[in-house]
Amino acid sequence: MKTYSRTEYSILNIIAGVGGYIANTVLGFICRMVFVKYLAADYLGVNGLFTNILSMLSLAELGIGGAITYALYKPLAEKDEEKIASLVKLYGTAYKVIGITIGIIGLCLIPFLKVIIKDQPDIAESIYLLYGINLFNTVITYFFSYRSSLLIAAQQNYIVVGINYLITILQSVIQMITLMYTHNYMAYILIQTIGTLIYNVSVSKAAKNKFPCITRKNVKVLPDDEKRILFENIRDLTFYKISGLLVNSTDNILITFFQGLTTTGIASNYTLLVNTLNSLLGQVFNGLTASIGNHNAIESEEKRYEMFNFMNFMNFWIFGWGTLGIVFCSSDIVSLCFGDKYVLPLEIPVILAANFYSVGMMNAVWTYKHTLGLFHYGRFLQIITGILNIVLSAILGKKFGLFGILVATLIARGLTNLCYDPYAVFKHGFGKSPLLYLKKYCHFILVLFIAAISCYYSMRVINSTRLVSCILKILICSLNINIIFLVAFFRWPEFNMLKRIIANMLTIVRNKMK
After folding, report:
1. Span 185-212, mean pLDDT?
2. Residue 486: exposed, middle, or buried by beta-carbon count in 10 A (0-12, 13-18, 19+)?
3. Displacement of CA 223 from its chain's centroid (Å)
4. Which of 89, 262, 377, 472 could form a disulfide with 424 if both were Cys (CB 3.0 to 4.6 A apart)?
5. pLDDT tens profile 235-264
């Protein structure tokens, strides 16, 4: 099997992730516009609600994926095929059991749909049938996805995302044509089911071709001491999983309960933009995660810390840029694409941007926490985050509606893991004072505030048609932000490292092209 350097794998993963995601997102956004045009708003609410419920069900995964991916870094770096096959076999058995468990729990939840959806939605199809199809899409993935995790851990995420985006793009085109001619949501969701099946089978086959060792009949069972360490990591990751679901996968359920499906659907246009931007930027970090896991497995502590500072710096640059874009441009994009009736008051994009920034700025911290195997630290705190989110969402949501629910999420994160996780990485991962992180974080906030003021006053002079105004705001916002960031950081060691990495990457690309 042909191998590449960490830098080459990172380039391949980032190009595949970002390039495919952009193409897929553009088509997905057009598909969304077709969806809004030909179907009632309640269908958007149904989509968002089912996504949240099924995300909650993935709690059954219990952190197994993260633990085994971490366990794979070292044997992959050492090319230990026997250990790789043993881990993948254990992983596959666990995921098949999880898939069946999720299916059973999901079916048991059907009677409770009436409790969440108090008013009959404006849809032609049975809400139970639609839920059943969505449940099947979730369950079937568990019978194949463990092999995709092997490719990701092996720094070959470009294969997984390449297959994913190719199939998703074709799926989106077919879904749009179907909606325009039939106006039928059932046909729309069945096409998605077929796409899910084709993707899972294709990725599974690719993993078997790249790693024939996982198809062996007589695979050794992991030793008891290694199983014990693995299960301890799974136990610790379970708490993170529960927290993530309680924080990230309950908002639409609470919005539906307090405000109704229509508000969920309208708000989902903004959350679509935010989640799209978050996922696009996340492609960069997804492309780097396996390489960082490999780096941490063989490099010194000082080298790890140096790379962390660089990643944290890049994290701020791209997520700071995205944050101000959400504040100043999201309403114009929603108005342009979906119409003025879908535009929400300014405080909604502001709080969405604050949530986006608070989570985005943790990417480097969470990447290192997981690739250094620091699952043990702060695991109980994550449960507190989730409970706080639900309690505060119920209190603030009842009083302030949509805005209150979104604020509750920010407060819950701010009081818990946004404070503790950087401490854990610096204290236990690098052996350094967490004040080093806090100092830089405050510096970043100050620079972001200056950039926000600059964008605000620059935007005030724009007075044109909707399309021109939207384009001008995006361009002016981007120009302001990047100039201010450049002036603020051009002397930093991390900026110099960025220049060296870009030069190295360009050299590799030129050599490959030759």
Report:
1. 86
2. exposed
3. 34
4. 377
5. 666 666 666 666 666 676 777 777 776 777
Which pLDDT tens digit goes with each residue over 366-414?
878 877 777 677 767 777 887 888 888 888 888 888 888 889 889 988 8
Distances (CA, A) of 256 to 117, 274, 355: 7, 19, 20
How many angstroms separate the CA atoms of 507 and 166, rounded?
28
Three-state SS annotation for 55-114 = HHHHHHHCCHHHHHHHHHHHHHHCCCHHHHHHHHHHHHHHHHHHHHHHHHHHHHCHHHHH
DSSP class of residue 431? Answer: -
Amino acid letter, 291: S
Q: What angle do CA 375, 378, 384 make, to 5 degrees?
A: 125
Distance CA 346, CA 64 (A): 40
Q: Phi and psi for 119 in degrees, rounded to 5? A: -105, 140
In 58-80, which residue ranges form alpha helices assigned H by DSSP?
64-77
What the block records as the tokens of 225 is 């001491």
Q: Which tokens go with 310? A: 């660089």
**Residue 378 DSSP label:** T
**Quick one: 263 exposed, middle or buried, by C-beta within 10 A (0-12, 13-18, 19+)?**
middle
CA neighbor of 266 nearest in space, from 338, 323, 332, 336: 338
What count of other Cβ atoms lies within 10 Å of the Cβ of residue 143? 16
Q: Tokens in use for 196?
A: 């899910």
Residue 46 is predicted with a pLDDT of 73
Q: Which two tokens stand for residue 303?
A: 């080298």
- Cβ-proximal residues to 209 (8 Å cutoff; 6+ apart), any chain: none
For residue 362, give both structure tokens.
Answer: 């943790």
